C-alpha cells in the first residue's frame, strides 16, 4: 500500500512538472512501450502543450474554408502562400506572444516578431512587411502605459533591425486585457513560386544543419508557460526566462538562408521557435515520414553544463534548421561564413521514423517523431452559452439619455485611446522599404500598401478584431472581424485574397469560453465563405486569463489583397474642395457595443451591430470598382466610433472641412452620428462622376446616399456638429 501511495505521489509530481494529464502520460507509455525518461518527458511536455499542439482547437479549425485556385499552401505549413501572378508567391502568418509580453514587454514583443519573420523565411520567402495587433488594459494605469510603450519599442527595435517596414496594425485598450495583454505580430513575405521551400526532412543520411545563435537556457519551458493562465500581479508572474532577440543577427541569417535557397542547396528548412529543436526536428521528420538522429554534444552552446532536455527545449532566438544532401555542406558553409553565421552539422535524416537524441555514442532519448508532432490526444470540450449573456445583450434605448452637446461628445470620442491617432505607438518604426518592394502606405490609413518593384501591382494588408463585439455576440463579432478587414482593403481598391487568423481566448476547459471560441470560429468561417477569402494560416492562443478571469474573446484577422494598379491607389483623406461626399451603404439605429456607449455612458452592453454579408459584399464591390474606374477621390470605412468619426478622420488627414446633411429622421441622433452600423464606406468624388458612381452602385445593388460636400475648414453635420478641423486634429492627436 505504501509503495502504491509513493508511486502515485511520484506520478503526480511528474505530471505537474511536465504539464501532462494522467491520460496523456498513459498514451506516452503505450506509444513507447516503456516509461519515458526525463528528456523524453520534456519533449512531450512541449509538443503536447496547448501552444504547440492545438489539442483543444483542432476540431473547430477544420471548418475554416482553406481552398481557392490561388492558394499554394494552406494551414499546416510555416506560413500560408498564395499565387499573386507574375511568377510570385506571397506568404503570410500571424503569431501571438501574449504571455511573454505580459512580463517582459520589450523582449516579448521583439521575439514574437522575430519568430513570425522566421516562419516566413522558412518558406524561402523574403520578409517584406510587418503588422502589429495589440490589446492592453486601461491607459490610465501606469503599468499599462509601461507595457504598451515597451511592447511598441520592442516591435520597432526588431523591425528596424531587420530592415522590414511596419505598414499596419491596431492597438486597443479595454479593461478586459488589464492582466493579460495581447501582442500579435504578422509578417508578409514574397518569393518566386519556383523557390518555395517546405519544412520537410527527406533523403536518408541527409545532413541536419543548425545555423544562427548559440543555444542557451533562455525560454526553456516557454511553450508550457504560454499554455497556462497568468497568475499574480504584473511583474510578479512566475515565468521561465524570456528569450532576448538580436535583429541584426536575424538580418544576416535571413540573407544567408535566402542565398542558400536561391542556389537550390537544401531539401527543407524550419525555424526554431516555440519548443526549439524538438519542434523543428520532429515536425520535419513527421512530414517527411522519416526519422532524425541528433548528436547534442555537437550543438553550439552559450552556457555551460546544459542538459539534453534544456538543449532540446531551448527557445534561443535567431536559429534555423536546414536539411541538405551531404555533398552540399561545403557550398552551404561558404555562404554562412560569408554572412558571419555560425553553423554546425548536428545530425542526419534516418528512415526509421524516430527522433533519436545522442550525446556522442550514448542515446539519451528516442521517440517516434510522429507521436510528438501528430499524436497528441485531442481534447473535446463541452460548450455552454454564458449565464450572463442575455443580461449583457439587453439595452433599452429609451433608458439611454442623448447628449446635449454633440461637439463635446465628438471631441471626447476622438481623444479616446481606441480612436485617437496611434502615431505615438508607431513613431519609432522607420519608414523603409524591403528589397523588391516600395512601401506606399504606412500605419494610419485603412490598410498598409506595398508596390512590387517592376510592376504596377501592389499588395494591401490589414489586421482587425473587436473583442467587445465578440464578448456581446462571438458569432457576429467573428463575422465583423473578417468583414471589416476586407472593407479596409476594398477602400484601397484591393481585392481581398487571403486570411491569417489569431484566435486569442481564455481557458477552453471552461464551457462558456469554449462556446465563445466555437461561435467565433463559425462566424469567421461564414464571413470568409461569403466574401470568398480563404484562411491560409493562423495561430491559436488559449488560456489568456489572469487570476481566473478570461479576456474578451478576441479573434484577430490579418488579411491581404491585391491592387492591380497602384496608380489608382485611393487615400482615406478628403482631397478636393467641392467634391461630393457620398455614403455607400445605409445608416441604422445601432449603438450596442459601440465606443460611444463606453466613452459617454460607461457601458459595454447590447447587441453588436448586425451584419448582412451579401450587403457587405455589394458595398465593397461597388467601392473597389469605383476606385478602379478612377471616379472617386477618397474612400474610408465606417467602423469604430461611427459615421461622425469616419468623417472627422477624412477631414483631419486631408486638412479640409466638410458640410454634411444626413436625412435619417427616423434614427436618434447619437446612433446616427456614433452608431457602428456595418457595411458603410464614405467616399468623395467630383460631382461630374456621380452618375458613374450611381451606375456602379446599381450594378452591385449597393445603396448610396449623398451626405454633403468637401468645403471650408470645419466639419458641420446637420445642426448637431460644427467644429474647426484644427480643433478636431488637436483632440485626435491627444
Structure in words:
With 734 residues, this protein is α+β, with helices and mostly antiparallel strands. Helix content is 36%, strand content 23%. It folds into 3 domains: 2-53, no CATH class; 198-375, Phosphoribosyl-aminoimidazole Synthetase, Chain A, domain 2 (Alpha-Beta Complex), CATH 3.90.650.10; 395-733, PurM-like, N-terminal domain (60s Ribosomal Protein L30, Chain: A, 2-Layer Sandwich), CATH 3.30.1330. The strands form 5 sheets. It has a 7-stranded mixed β-sheet. The chain has a 7-stranded mixed β-sheet with strand order 23-25-22-26-24-27-28. Helix 10 packs antiparallel against helix 13.
Compile the SSE list and pairings.
Layout: H1 2-18, H2 22-32, H3 38-47, H4 50-53, H5 58-61, E1 71-73, E2 80-85, E3 88-96, H6 98-103, H7 105-121, E4 126-136, H8 142-161, E5 166-173, E6 182-192, E7 207-212, H9 222-225, H10 247-262, E8 268-271, H11 276-287, E9 291-295, H12 308-313, E10 319-324, H13 329-338, E11 343-350, E12 354-359, E13 362-368, H14 369-374, H15 389-393, H16 406-414, H17 423-426, E14 437-441, E15 448-452, E16 458-464, H18 467-472, H19 474-490, E17 495-504, H20 511-531, E18 535-541, E19 545-546, E20 549-550, E21 554-563, E22 580-584, H21 595-601, H22 613-628, E23 634-637, H23 642-654, E24 658-660, H24 669-674, E25 681-685, H25 690-700, E26 704-710, E27 714-717, E28 721-724, H26 725-733
Parallel strand pairs: 4-5, 9-12, 17-18, 24-27
Antiparallel strand pairs: 1-2, 2-3, 3-6, 4-6, 7-10, 7-11, 8-10, 9-11, 12-13, 14-15, 15-16, 16-21, 17-21, 19-20, 22-25, 22-26, 23-25, 24-26, 27-28
Helix pairs in contact: 7-8, 8-10, 10-13, 16-26, 19-20, 19-22, 22-25, 23-26
